[in-house]
From TrEMBL:
Biased composition (Basic and acidic residues): 9-18
Protein's name according to its UniProt entry: Class I SAM-dependent methyltransferase
Region (Disordered): 1-22
Keywords (A to Z) from UniProt: Methyltransferase, Transferase
Recorded GO MF terms: 2-polyprenyl-6-hydroxyphenol methylase activity; 3-demethylubiquinol 3-O-methyltransferase activity
Family annotation (Pfam families): Methyltransf_23
């Protein structure tokens, strides 16, 4: 079922960053390199909140229900018209993965230049339909440039390590549910050296392309167990197995120190939330940690999912605040160790009661 992927020693790859680059950041054509530490003065951090002191007293009437994103992609609408049926969950996930990943591959400055030229060409031709379409392309590439490349709000290499720090684990086994490219699993492994990562997704594209094409030159800032200082790691430094299967079919027992999901819970309506939470519980060792994130319900996120609908909106999706997310977690049998938010995501660390 699982495939153990080669270690760094099996490759000859380009690793351009080392400890001498600590504290630096650099814009690449498709993403940002960031080897800076967060600080309390930075926006790039995990903000721990204490809005709820006793989760047992919090009720849905206090927090309301999440915001459902109802705008769907053109490709989904066309598929449903052609098949005269609602697109099933797995198909929508496959469509989303491909549409989303294509944006990670873009040379953004070149794409901005290309779209600007196309816009002026459409203006000169005075074709209203073409102008509208190209203007949408221009808006999307500029938004993607800001969110992913400038602000680094998708990977968030300072906010997520700030959330992950301080876990009582040693050489942990990490299970990543709905892993896609596995970014957060690799970041955890950099912070807790000697980790074993099992990435799980039921779309083969995630293993072969989203993880397979993740840049080998991308540096992860982690801990050096030999010195107690910091160390730069790369994708091929990590022990990774990738499992292609439905989460409900996984054969594992309670054998993982950390079970993590990033943007999973919000894809399921309320009648499936309990099952999703049980997926996290059933594979966790006693004393282990569940780590979860969901997109924040803020005006920036609503705007992003509206403008990027053709890229993002193939599946059922909600935007939450951290109290709503926490209530789902607490009501389904978990004590919340830490809750807060980053740029684009709510985040919770929890343990089963």
């Amino acid at each position: 079922m699982s495939t153990v992927l080669p270690s760094r020693s099996d490759y000859r790859t380009d690793h351009p960053y080392s400890e001498q680059h600590l504290g630096s950041t650099e814009l690449k054509p498709s993403f940002r390199i960031d080897l800076r530490n967060y600080s309390n003065k930075d926006y790039d951090k995990f903000v721990t909140v204490k809005t709820v002191r006793d989760w047992s007293l919090l009720k849905w009437k206090h927090v309301g229900k999440p915001y459902e994103v109802k705008t769907v992609s053109k490709s989904r609408r066309l598929w449903e018209q052609e098949h005269e049926a609602t697109m099933e969950a797995k198909t929508s996930w496959i469509y989303f993965n491909k549409a989303f990943h294509e944006w990670f591959d873009k040379d953004v400055p070149q794409e901005i230049k290309k779209q600007r030229q196309a816009f002026f060409k459409s203006i000169s031709a005075f074709n209203p339909a073409e102008i509208s379409e190209v203007l949408g392309d221009v808006t999307r590439i500029h938004l993607w440039n800001y969110v992913h490349r400038i602000q680094d709000g998708v990977w968030d290499p300072r906010g997520k390590p700030a959330m992950f720090e301080g876990l009582d684990v040693h050489k942990p086994r990490i299970l990543f549910l709905g892993a896609a490219e596995g970014y957060e699993g690799m970041q955890l492994a950099a912070m807790y050296p000697g980790a074993e990562i099992v990435l799980v997704d039921y779309d083969e594209y995630c293993k072969t392309v989203r993880y397979g094409d993740f840049p080998e030159s991308y540096p992860f800032l982690g801990m050096n167990p030999a010195t107690g200082g910091q160390k730069v790691y790369y994708k091929n430094d990590f022990q990774v197995a990738y499992v292609i299967d439905d989460i409900r079919n996984l054969p594992f027992g309670k054998e993982f120190d950390i079970v993590i999901s990033v943007g999973l819970l919000e894809h399921f309506p309320d009648n499936h939330k309990a099952e999703v939470m049980d997926w996290h519980r059933k594979f966790l060792k006693d004393g282990g940690y569940v780590i979860m994130t969901t997109p924040r319900n803020q005006w920036k996120s609503r705007l992003f999912y509206l403008i990027m609908a053709d890229v993002m909106n193939h599946t059922y999706r909600e935007l939450m605040n951290v109290e709503q997310m926490g209530l789902y977690v607490y009501e389904n049998g978990f004590n919340i160790v830490r809750h807060g938010y980053m740029k684009a995501h709510n985040a919770i660390i929890a343990q089963p009661r």
